[in-house]
Specification:
heterodimer; A: 251 residues; alpha/beta; 5-stranded antiparallel beta sheet; 11 strands; 28% strand; globular; B: 216 residues; mainly alpha; 8 helices; binds adenosine-5'-diphosphate; binds magnesium ion
């Protein structure tokens, strides 16, 4: 089953072309890592996929239904009501973006109750299970400011999972963390991969990408330069730009 | 006039002072939010109008605004004037709302954009985002500035004497110059009333700030 299809995505800020004809398709259970130098458009791609930015051109479909299609003039036309599509995905931010005035438990239950209108008791029970799974059982009543960065990021993953998305996007989930805290977050994502959660992960953790992904995409200058199995892209890349990028990462 | 009678009369006037204070806050705290929304409206004319309103409210004396609200409708349009008390409340609410709107704006604009984005991705409507994500965080951020305004308001209530509203300050000035009154002592007692009132207000606001200090 196809979860996400992006076709011919183009996006510019003022005169700056940031996405130049990107196409991407993600199947159920697939884990796709996106790597590439800073400024290559990785975040913009995720932000367009999650409707935080709108495409200039191109189409976006979730579960086979188009959220944006190409209009007669070639420009992207969005559905009026995007809420059914928002239900399909979650997004984990680099900066967590937890709600600081709410406890961890409230962060996780608020959207299921308020947006999905699920009964509070049921949402809380599920949230506690999720928090337990992510090693935060004893932090349910803590506030985000009382948590370490790694715990905050795990809480934000719990918040996204509580909405039961078909697909979870991660935008550099460990880049804001101290090195000794990245492991605990990567382990959680890895466990989700083992459970066949569909994920698109922008990351600079090459070893992690290699271990966890079904497919790796290398982006540079707003285009997909190369994609394929992790070993092909990360160990035996065919493109010179990919080789250059990986070399800069080893040093 | 005995000391006790004087204190009793001031206490009576203090009830009016208290009423001006409470009604002004009840009106201007929410109106300030509406003014803030006008300030960032998509309609350029509304935005411009609100900007002018805020700048006039902040750039002219409240005493003058009181006179205008009380006298202008009658002098300029021959309308029946508002009661002195009602004119005071209108002038105070409209003036303080302008200040609160600017304070709210500062508080809201200091909230990281990531909060809006997290809410949007989770599917919150604009209203849910504002009332459940932004507003609670704004309240905490603006509380110290609001406290300053509220303490200023306690003292500003005395300006109502300019249109002869019989609040505590008006009474104190009348009593102080009346024959056989306790004279200057009247002002000292009025000062104690204001001071204690402000003390209580500051204490309450501090408690509110403490109650919101459970997060950063
Ligand atoms: N809102 C924006 N306005 C203007 N330029 C932007 C905006 N967002 C991103 N850009 C620019 O788009 C380019 C790609 O950014 P981004 O998608 O964040 O790259 P990456 O995540 O790969 O580092 C950068 O040059 C960045 O400065
Ligand atoms: Mg980025």
């Amino acid at each position: 089953m196809n979860v996400l299809t992006i076709t011919g995505a183009q996006k510019s800020f003022a005169e700056l072309g940031v996405l130049k004809d990107i196409s991407l398709s993600v199947d159920e259970g697939e884990v796709v890592s996106v790597i590439g130098p800073s400024g290559s458009g990785k975040s913009t791609l995720l932000r367009c996929a999650t409707f935080l930015e709108t495409l200039d051109r191109g189409e976006i479909a979730y579960m086979g239904k188009k959220a944006a299609h190409s209009g007669p003039d070639g420009k992207s036309v969005y559905e009026k009501d995007l809420s059914p599509f928002r239900r399909c995905f979650g997004l984990v931010f680099q900066q967590f973006n937890l709600f600081p005035h709410r406890s961890v438990l409230q962060n996780v239950t608020d959207a299921p109750v308020r947006v999905q209108k699920r009964p509070r008791a049921e949402a809380e029970e599920e949230a506690r299970k999720l928090l337990g799974k992510l090693g935060l059982a004893d932090k349910a009543d803590a506030y985000p400011c009382q948590l370490s960065g790694g715990q905050q990021q795990r809480a934000s993953i719990a918040r996204a999972l509580a909405m039961k998305p078909e697909l979870l996007f991660f935008d550099e989930p460990t880049s804001a963390l101290d090195p000794e805290l990245t492991g605990e977050v990567l382990r959680v994502i890895r466990r989700l991969a083992e459970e066949k959660m569909t994920m698109v992960i922008v990351t600079h953790e090459m070893d992690f990408a290699r271990a966890v992904s079904d497919r790796v995409i290398f982006m540079d200058g707003g285009v997909i330069v190369e994609q394929g199995a992790p070993d092909d892209v990360l160990v035996n890349p065919t493109q010179e730009r990919t080789r250059q990028f990986l070399k800069s990462y080893q040093s | 006039m005995t000391f006790q009678t004087m204190v009793g009369q001031l206490a009576g006037g203090f009830l009016t002072t208290l009423a001006i204070f409470v009604l002004t806050l009840l009106g201007s705290l929410p109106l300030g939010l509406a003014v803030y929304f006008g300030r960032r409206s998509r309609l350029a004319p509304l935005r411009g109008l609100v900007k002018v309103y805020i700048s006039v409210m902040r750039g002219t004396p409240l005493m003058l605004q009181l006179m205008v609200v009380y006298y202008a409708p009658n002098l300029m349009f021959g309308m029946r004037p508002l009661s002195r008390f009602a004119a005071t409340i209108v002038a105070f609410v409209v003036n303080y709302a302008a200040y609160f709107a600017e304070i709210y704006r500062g508080g809201i604009e200091s909230i990281p954009v990531g909060q809006y984005e997290a809410a949007e991705v989770l599917g919150y409507t604009k209203g849910q985002t504002f009332f459940h994500v932004i507003l609670p965080q704004m309240v905490k951020r603006v509380l110290p500035s609001v406290t300053n305004e509220v303490i200023t308001l306690v003292k500003d209530t005395s300006l109502a004497s300019v249109i002869a509203v019989v609040e505590m300050f008006t009474l104190a000035s009348r009593i102080a110059v009346a024959p056989h009154s306790p004279g200057m002592v009247t002002f000292a007692v009025a000062a104690v009333f204001y001071y204690v009132f402000n003390y209580v207000v500051a204490f309450a606001m501090e408690r509110a700030e403490k109650a919101l200090s459970y997060y950063q």
